[in-house]
Description:
The protein has 17 helices and 10 strands. It is of the alpha/beta class. The radius of gyration is 26 Å and the shape is globular.
Amino acid sequence: MTTDPGLERWRLILGAPAEGHCGGLAGEAAEQGRALDWLYGRGDPELTRRGVRRGGVRGGDGTGEPDGSGREGGTGPSVLTTVDWLDEVHRLFPKETIERLERDAVERYEILDVVTDPAVLERIEPNPTLLRAVLRTKHLMNPEVLALARRIVEAVVRELTEKLATEIRQAFSGTRSRRPSRFKQARNFDFRRTIRANLGNYRPDERRVYIEEPHFVSRTRRHLDKWQLILLVDQSGSMVGSVIHSAVTAACLWSLPGLKTHLVAFDTDVVDLTSDVTDPVELLMKVQLGGGTDIARAVGYGATLIENPRRTIFVVISDFYEGGHEETLVRSVRELAQQGTQVLGLAALDEEAEPEFDRAMAQRLADAGAHVGAMTPGRLAEFVAERIGR
Length: 390
C-alpha cells in the first residue's frame, strides 16, 4: 500500500492499471478508488478481469447482470448500484468533484437511472447537468418519477432565475453618465474621480489612500417604449442548454415595462410558448427535445409576430444545421434586416457560450444582415438594453 500522497493521487487519477507503479490504496483512498473505478472503469479490460462492477450503463438496473452492451461485472464485494455509488461519492468527495462525476455519469456514460430511478432522484442534489438530463429523458418517466424529477427542474430554474434577474436589472438600470450624483450607491461608485480627489491623503509608509470624499456618478434612464423581443429556440437535443436559458431569460424579461417578449420553440414544427413564459418550470416540462430542424419555417412564423420592424429584436437560437429550405431561410433573414429589424443569430445561449454549429450557414446569415455569435444570457440582456435604450 502506498503512503505517498503524490503517488496516491496519481493512482486515483490513472486507475487500477497504475497500481503496479503507484502502489495500492488503503482506507478512504481505497473507497475513492472503487467509486472512480465504478464509473471510469467501464470498458477497461483490466478492471473487467478484476471483477469491478459495471452496472448502470444505459439505464442498467444495478443487479450485476449483463446490460446488453457486451460488458459484464463481477459479483464480489465491490458490487455497487447507482444509489450506492451516489451515496459513496457524496460522502467521499468535495462538491466540485461530485458535480463532475454526476455529469460524466449522465453525459459520458449515459447512466440514465441517475434521473429515472426514484431511489436515485430522492438522494441526488439538483444541478444544471441533471436538469439537462431530466429534459432529455422525461419522456421515459412514469408519473411518480416525473414528480420527483420536477424537483430538480424547480431547484435549478430558481437558482438560474435569481442569478439572471440580477444581471438583467443591471443591464436595464441605465448607462452610467459622467455627471456627478449625490446618491451614494456602490454600483455607481466613480473610482477614478475618487482617487484623484483624495490623492492628498496618500500615506507612503502605509501605501494607502484614505478616502474622505467618495464620488459617484448618475445613470441615464432607459425608456422602454413599444419594443418587441422575439426568441426562436431550436429544441433539438444538442440545444438543451440554450432551451433552458432561453426559458429563464424570457421569464426575467417578461415583466419589463415597454418590452413585449415572445418565446417560440421549433424543430420541424413550431410551438408558440409565449403563454407559458411566466412559469419557466412548466414551460420546460412541456418542451419536447429532439427531432429535425426547420429554421426557415420558424423564422417565417416569427416574422408574422412583428408589429413594428424598427422596434423589434428578432433572436434565432440554433446550431444552424438547417433541415428545411436553406435559400428560404437566408432570404427571410435578409428581408427582416432590410426592413430595419435587429436580427440576432445565436449558436448558443448559456453560461459557457461555446457552441458547435454550421459555420457556413452562420456566415450566410451574417452576410444577409444578421448579427451572429454566441452569448451568455446576461450579454443578451445587455444587447437588448443597448438597442432599445438608443
